[in-house]
Amino acid sequence: MKPQDIVAGKSSLWIFGYGSLVWKPDFKYKRSEVGYIQSYKRRFWHGDNFHRGNDESPGRVVTLIEDDDATTWGVAFEVSGSQLEESLKYLTVRETVRGGYITKMVDFFPYGEDPSPVQALVYIATADNPLYLGPATPEEIGAQIAMCRGKTGHNLEYLLRLAEFMRSSCPHVEDNHLFAIETAALTVVSYFLASQ
Fold it and tell me: What is the helix (H) or strand (E) element at residue 13, kind and residue range?
């Protein structure tokens, strides 16, 4: 599904971020809301050979994996008017061209007293994407993240900023996959620093 097809005739759109978009959207938006989507779990199973790694040493970034019992927390951004076209143009390059993500529409539930869902566009990397790395242990993923760097910065920054977002904006949510990888990556970094 192409973003242009999704927005045909719409004056506004919500875009759900669950990775770097939660702390670095880099596009103008009308407002943002912390909340969640259902039936997907966030996993560091996607490779990144541009932003957080390179062809020889791809970084690991998050994607969504279907799971009926799962919930993924993040931020949805409402874009309207000229923001709609500008944000989709920017995200097409950032997420689709460079990241290999596809788009889907999902129900986004804002956190708060009235969790009425709104439709939101989300970017997902699937297993048929050439950059898809698939599952690995937290230790393997953490070690890979600790050693990779791309044009946007170190892969460790991506991991730590996502973990910090979850702790500060969703303190009631325990993201075991994310926090286990954070612990593993920081262990690798501490061993590396101790050996210097």
Answer: strand 12-17
CA gap 20, 92 in Å, rounded: 15
Tokens 């919930």 belong to 71
Q: Is the pLDDT of residue 100 over 90?
A: no
Instruction: Return the higher-pLDDT residue of 174 and 96.
Output: 174
**Is 85 considered catalytic here?**
no
**Cα–Cα distance for residue pair 153/175, rounded to 1 Å:** 24
Residue 165: C-alpha distances to residues 1, 22, 50 (Å):
29, 7, 23
pLDDT for 4 equals 60
Instruction: Report the alpha-carbon distance of residue 149 to residue 130 in Å, rounded.
Output: 19
Return d(Cα 37, Cα 70) in angstroms, integer. Answer: 9
- From residue 18, give the alpha-carbon distance in Å to each of 8, 11, 40, 61, 146: 24, 24, 11, 10, 20
Return the H-helix or E-strand segment holding 139. Answer: helix 138-147
Question: pTM to 2 decimals?
Answer: 0.91
Task: Measure the CA dihedral 154/125/16/50, to 10°.
Answer: 30
pLDDT over 90 (residue 180)? yes
Choosing from 78, 85, 86, 95, which is the catalytic residue? 95
Span 128-135, average pLDDT: 93
